[in-house]
Structure formats: C-alpha cells, structure tokens
Amino acid sequence: MRIGLLTEGGYPYVSGDARLWCDRLVRGLGQHEFDIYALSRSERQEGEGWIQLPPQVSRVRTAPLWKAEDDGVAYGRRARRRFADAYGELAAAVCGAPVAGSADSAEFAGGSGALGGPVAADGVEADRFASALYGLAELAREERGLVGALRSEVAVRALERACRAPGALGTARAARVPDLLSVAAHIERALRSLSLDWYEGDGLDSVDLCHATAGGAAALPGLLARHFSGVPLLVTEYGVPLRAHYLAAATVEEVPAVRALLAAFHGRLAAEVYRAAALITPGNTHARRWQERCGADRAKLRTVYPGMEASRFAEVGESAEGGRCVDADTLVWVGRIEPAKDLISLLHSFAEIRKEQPKTRLRIVGAPADVPDGAAYLAHCKALAAQLFPDEAEGVHAVGDNPVSFEEIGAPEVPSLAEAYASGAVIVLSSVVEGFPISLVEAMFCGRATVSTDVGAVVEVIGGTGLVVPPRNPRALAEACVALLRDPERRERLGAAARARALELFTVEQNIAAFHGIYLEIVSHSPVRRVVVDDEGEPLPFGVPAEAHVPGRWAETRLMTAGRPRWAAGAPVRATVPVPAGEGA
Question: How many CB atoms lie within 10 A of CB 123?
Fold first, then answer.
C-alpha cells in the first residue's frame, strides 16, 4: 500500500526526533511504498541534510515551520469575512467563551484549568474548534494561502474579543495586547500546514493511509487529508507533544495569560487529532494515560513499544550472561546531560554510596543536550563533583584521581555505546522527567542490573527486572545501588531477566510486525475511495480489500477510466412486452 509518513523535526533529516525508528520502520516494511511529508524546525536542520533513504521511499516533500513568507494573497470582502468568522470561532473555543444563546454555556465557561490542563475537549467546544479549524483549511485551499491572514490585525482583534467575552478563562481576560500578539504568532506557526499544497494533485489525497509520527503539528496534514479526501489517519506518539508543551511552558518566562491560551489551543488540537484518528499507537502506558485524559477513545489505542537494534549490544549481553564484568565497583550513567536527568541528586547519592563502598567509581557518559542551559548544567555538575570528591591518591607519591568522570561516546575510554554499558556493574537512571527510557532498554539488552527513579514509563519497561526508587531521593538511590554492588549473584539474575525481557518486547522486529498488522487493519476497515473494474469493465464492489495492498497477482486491478464502462455503451435497450400464455402457440 502507499503510506504518507508525516513527520515534524525528524525523519528524513540527519538530526531530529523519531529519526531512528522511522528509518527502521520504512526499511522494515519494504513491501509498501512511502511518501515522506516532513516539517523542518530550523534552518540548521535543513542545512544538515537527509539520511540515505531506502528505495521504497518514492518521494519526499518538505516545508519549514521555522519561517513562512507572506503568501501575498489579497482576500476579497467575502473571504475576509469568512476568515474573521472562522478565526473568531477558533479563538472563542480556545478561550473558553460560551456559545451565544447556548444552554450549556455555563458548563463550558471554565474550559480548561489555569494552564488549560489536559482535560478532554468534548461537546460544544470540541465541535466549535473542529468546525473553525476546517473552515480555515477550506479557505486556505480556495484562496491558496492563509499566512498573511493569520498574521493580520483581524486575528489579533478576534483573540481580544474572545478573551474579553463573558465566561472566558479568567487568566485569558487578563491578556494584554503584547500577550495577544504572542499568542497569535504561535497559532500562526502551528497552523502553517493549512497553507501547504499537499492535499490535492497526487499528494496526500492519493495515499492509502496517513501515518503521523507525533501529534500536534505533525498530525495536522493528516487531519486535513482526512477532511478533504477521507484518507484514514494513524497517530503514533512515543512522547506526548501536549505533555512536552506543558513542561516547556513551565520553564519559559511567559505571563500566565499566554501560557493558559497556548495550553488550551494545544489541548483542543490534541483532542481533535485523537477524535479523527482511526487508531492511536502510544509507545507506553504512561503516554496512553495522557492520551486518554486528553480525550482519546480507549477503543482506538494500541500500545506499540519502540523498536531498538539488539544486535548492537549482543556481544556485551552474551558476555554478561557468563557473569563477566569490566569493573564490579563501577556505576554508569548514560544519556543527554540536562536538568531533567537530575545529575545533582545522583552526585549527592554517590557521596552516600562512597561512605559504604569507598572503592566505587561513577562514570557519567554523555554530551550536554542541545538546549540553552545544557552546557551550563554540565559545568555545574562538574563543579559539584570536584567539590564533593576532591582528587584522591592511594599514597603520598601517587597522582590524585577523582572517582567521578565525565566522558563522551567516541572518546578513547568509551569508543562505543555498548562499551559504556559494559564498563560498569550497575546502570543508574536518576531522571525526574522521562518519557520512554531508551538508555534503560539499552542497558537491559546488555544484561546489566539497573537502579532507576520511578518516572515516566520506567516501571513498565523494567517490569521487575531492576530496582526502582522515588525521584529526588538521593538516600534511596544510594541504598539501592549499594545493595546491588554488594550482591553480584543478584546483579547477574536481574541482568539476565532484563535482557530476556528486552529481547521479547523492545526489538525492531516486534515493532515492524505490529505496524504491519495495524496498517492492514486500518485499510481493511476504510471505505474504498477509488472505483475498480475487472477485465470486462464490470465494477468490483470489493476490489480493494486489505489483501489487495500486498504485492502479488491478486493485487492486479484496473482503475475505472473516465466515461461509461463498456457494459453501459450503446443505445438503451427497450424492454419487451410479455406475451400472454396461449397467444404464441
């Protein structure tokens, strides 16, 4: 079948989210044809180029989210009025303003919480948001652009009216003009997909299925393809964009009104994506709970764990089964260095560990995250390590050495990721925020015992094959590490169980098999959008079942050409009059 793969800030670019699993999925499903529709996040990402694509990728279409030149479209009076009405309805749904004359207006006046919390958008408000969104999409399709209108004074005024309307969010009513400008700019960026030419002329209208690799902006083209052409939509979320937005909003210095309005907008958009999707595939139970709270129908949810290449860690994992370890007194932490990983608590915990196990060492392997405070956080961690653990020496003539080391993959001491995990007896995860813990799964493939904090999908991934402690609790983390350092047999048992669990649940093969079945399930339940005829020109009412998308002789069908089929050619035949019995004798 022909799949439209929708991405934002990831595949097929060299850097970005979901790049690896998308590439593995496309390569693993070689019997299907893939069209890639990618939204880029920055000029730097576009400049880095694409990864090498497999032959089953038939085309790639890209569009930047980081810039949008004015389309130069001049609306007529009627188009301007349509835009004002549709955008006004969208703003009213976001602000929680009641529908004029509605008996339920009091019920919907509260809308979301102070931050537009993840409350299911249903009833009148959901219908308002969806109708306004598709109204804007239809206007953009007819007028060939919407960028200029979304940036216009009309949009800002519509937001202002919605915020000042009786029953709107309390925080929204406090919004000032600079706040409204900021919200309008964000909404314009989020809705840039409405102005793309992806939806007709052998675009998304011609695919059998749209597969969005995330919600939010990535899924918006799929929403429009479904609205315009009836193309079924599959949404995969290994991290929930709405949750990521809430976490990011908490760290950005925005006034409460801006945070509330943007959170409400993203909440409404997420709810519409979940409503329109044929199926939703969260990557873990943690993401699934978020989706259900945001309005996703439980019957549509299918949990599909991310697939990872176990072969990279096979040598280390097989050697671990024999009980071999490079250093039985070493703890290893692997990941991106950023505040969410809470290395500060890990260092304080290591100070407690050293009191019980003086020979223990801690290797922190990773580079600072590509965020504004990533490098500063790494410098702060190094300074704390130097303060907590002054260089030590075994004798008066020996050179001192710090028991904590900061290293990066590719250095002489850590040439590969697998060797980083192989260098220690226990792998530690100290995060306070985590989605799907990839480093934990890699440690499990390597057959290593783990100590982790109870955040995100950690407990679901570990499943009893490692120790789990509360986050931001250095003492509990230290006690769990000491318990494993002192008990090599327990470490070996846990490591073997962890490896077996990872090989069963988290391999590329299980991920590809799951999506292959889901693709067929969705297409088999979708209405046929093309008329198919046989060799005689007769229409085949069941000409495109799921099996017809699998390559083979049974898939050879012929689309109906323009005009009438052969059985309808020629002059109409006049019905004959029946002859009464006995007259023809």
Answer: 12
| pTM, rounded to two decimals | 0.81
Instruction: Yes or no: say if 210 and 235 are a contact pair by the CB < 8 Å rule.
Output: no
CA 574 to chain centroid, in Å, comes to 62
Helix axes 508-524, 19-28, angle to 10 degrees: 70
Structure tokens at 368: 């600072």
d(CA 257, CA 170): 9
Give tens-digit pLDDT for 510-550: 999 999 999 999 998 887 565 566 677 776 665 555 555 55
Please tell me the number of Cα atoms within 13 Å of 257 on its side-chain side. Answer: 21
The C-alpha atoms of residue 15 and residue 25 are separated, in whole angstroms, by 17
What is the C-alpha separation between 403 and 327, in angstroms, rounded?
13
Task: Tell me the pairing of strands 233-237 and 449-453.
Answer: unpaired
Q: Over the stretch 220-239, which tens digit does the pLDDT of each residue have?
A: 999 999 999 999 999 999 87
For 25, residues 6+ apart whose C-beta sits below 8 A from its C-beta are 307, 511, 512, 515
Give burial (CB, 10 Å; 0-12/13-18/19+) of 480: buried
Mean pLDDT value of segment 489-496: 95
* Token couple for 226: 């479904």
